[in-house]
Amino acid sequence: MQLAMNPAIADARDTFDALLQAHRKIVFKVAASYATGVEDRADLAQEIATQLWRAYPAYDEARSFSTWMYRIALNVAISEFRIASRNRRHTVPLDESLHDAPDHNTPQPESDAGVRALHAVIQRLDPLHRALLVLYLEERSTREIAEILGIGESNVTTKLSRLRQRLRAELS
């Protein structure tokens, strides 16, 4: 016996699916910024999509979907990053040689040394600065970055200025 789905729920699911598909690059960019391995990125993208669906009933259609989506995605990624960091501090690898082995499952399309250096710097950033850089590279406005991260616009401007100085210093 198959249960009939409530039409309102079906409509919400269809609308959400369409919005998620239209903005799916946001999920992948955030996942790529916070997870290193292919499986980790896929898991994080799935967790982001799940949390977006759970939060969707509270979405205010008067606001930009992409801004709302970034905020949820970054919060999920930062939470997962912090959990993984705590777990790494309390975990000892079984075999150190496995820990240092290159991840052959991770595609390395960036043959340019500058791009690889930028990725290395990004991986060393704390979660807030990483989110700030992702949004800046996405060419989001200062106002939109402030709204997504929940900080003031002047704070965004100051942090971006310091982040650009840090990137110049580390990449030169």
Keywords:
mainly alpha; 73% helix; 172 residues; 0% strand; globular
Can you characterise this structure?
The chain is mostly helical. 73% of the residues lie in helices and 0% in strands. Helix 8 (142-149) packs across helix 9. The longest helix has 25 residues, at 65-89. It starts with 6 loop residues before the first helix and ends with a helix. Mean pLDDT is 82; it is low at 94-110.
What is the percentage of strand-forming residues? under 5%
Structural class: mainly alpha
- Average pLDDT, rounded to a whole number, is 82
Low-confidence stretches: 94-110
Helix content: over 70%
- DSSP strand count: 0
Q: What is the string of helix and strand elements?
A: HHHHHHHHH
Shape assignment: globular
Radius of gyration: 19 Å
End-to-end Cα distance: 66 Å
Helix count, DSSP H or I runs of 4 or more residues? 9
- Quaternary status of these chains? single chain
User: Main sheet?
Assistant: none
How would you summarize this macromolecular structure in one to three sentences?
This protein is mostly helical and 172 residues long.
Which helices and strands, and how do they pair?
Layout: H1 7-22, H2 24-34, H3 38-55, H4 65-89, H5 96-100, H6 113-124, H7 127-137, H8 142-149, H9 153-171
